[in-house]
Design brief:
- By secondary structure, this protein is α/β, with parallel strands linked by helices.
- Helix content is 36%, strand content 15%.
Length: 324
């Protein structure tokens, strides 16, 4: 398997880990079923998502499907361990997950820690073969330590054929670019830094990927929900918070170009990252089956080239170079 073989649209399974709101097992299954029925064959999860709930639910669902028909990725770097501060009714809402906080996340970038993370993810998923393992948000702990210990541990697991591809997932462009340049990675997950609204990764991450022959997956392409509907409002969520004035002004200019070309804003948001040859897949999350089906339709919607030309001419997206 190579990055070039990725499905163009993937499902990010944070929502089935009860991100932002609680889902029952049946509701989570319906979301995943809608993704599968919509043709989605790449599924991404992490121990972080719902303190393992996302992995358990996703694994239960995928175990009903032919293993050779989907691509599965999870993440490493945080181990789940008993939380001594857990009390009756305690929830992990400080991390936006509506799950009991009986576990806590413990950073561990050692070889033993990375191997334990993989073993524990396999157990929660109930699936032995994991196609991709990303080191999750290494800059939030210690990027130097990640480069010295965690990435070499992932490289060793890849050499042993214990996993397929290895990579890094982060919302910080500098950390992604440095990881690509200093570690032997197959792929990166760029979360929120290469979207229709903002493209800092175009300045450093994508050139590093071209230089190193590394593929990319774009996640958080709605910037945490701001681009998820054609008529955004000022109270919508941006990067898990409020919308800064300069971001709102830029968004209004993008919305005007969408209106001029009769293009749905979320369709443009899903399709934009794929205009770079480095980006092999766009991962979109959702907590409702109808949203999943709608996202699949938006990913397939026709968008005229003139729309992208006008965004480029307005300085809203950078020109696509031959190397991109």
């Amino acid at each position: 398997m190579s990055p070039a073989g990725f499905p163009a649209l993937g499902y990010g399974a944070a929502n089935v880990g009860n991100l932002f709101r609680e889902l029952t097992d049946d509701e989570a299954w319906a979301v995943l079923d809608a993704a599968w029925e919509s043709g989605i064959r790449y599924f991404d999860t992490a121990p972080h998502y719902g303190l393992g709930l996302s992995e358990r639910r996703l694994g239960a669902f995928l175990r009903t499907k032919p293993r050779d028909e989907f691509v599965l990725s999870t993440k490493a770097g945080r181990l789940l361990r008993a939380n001594p501060a857990h009390g009756p009714g305690g929830l992990d809402t400080v991390n936006d997950f509506f799950v009991p906080d009986d576990l806590q996340r413990v950073w561990d970038f050692s070889d033993a820690g990375i191997r334990a993370s993989l073993d524990e993810s396999r157990e929660r998923l109930g699936i032995d073969r994991i196609d991709i393992v990303y080191l999750h948000d290494p800059e939030r702990h210690d990027l130097d330590l990640a480069l010295a210990e965690a990435f070499p541990a992932l490289e060793a697991l890849r050499a042993e054929d214990a996993i397929g591809l290895i990579g890094v997932g982060s919302m910080v462009s500098d950390a992604l670019a440095r990881s690509v340049r200093e570690a032997d990675l197959d792929i990166v997950m760029i979360a929120g830094r290469y979207t229709l609204l903002e493209q800092p990764a175009a300045a450093d991450v994508l050139p590093a990927c071209v230089e190193r022959g590394t593929g990319a997956v774009a996640a958080s392409v709605f910037n945490s929900g701001l681009l998820a509907k054609s008529e955004p409002v000022r109270g919508d969520r941006y990067e898990y918070g409020g919308v800064p004035d300069e971001i709102w002004d830029r968004l209004q200019r993008i919305v005007a170009v969408c209106a001029a070309h009769d293009v749905a804003l979320p369709a443009a948001a899903i399709q934009y990252p794929l205009r770079s040859s480095v980006v092999q897949s766009v991962v979109v999350g959702s907590s409702r089956p109808e949203q999943v089906r709608q996202n699949a339709d938006l990913a397939a919607a026709e968008i005229p080239e003139e729309f992208w030309d006008d965004l480029t001419a307005g300085g809203l997206i950078p020109p696509v170079s031959e190397e991109d």
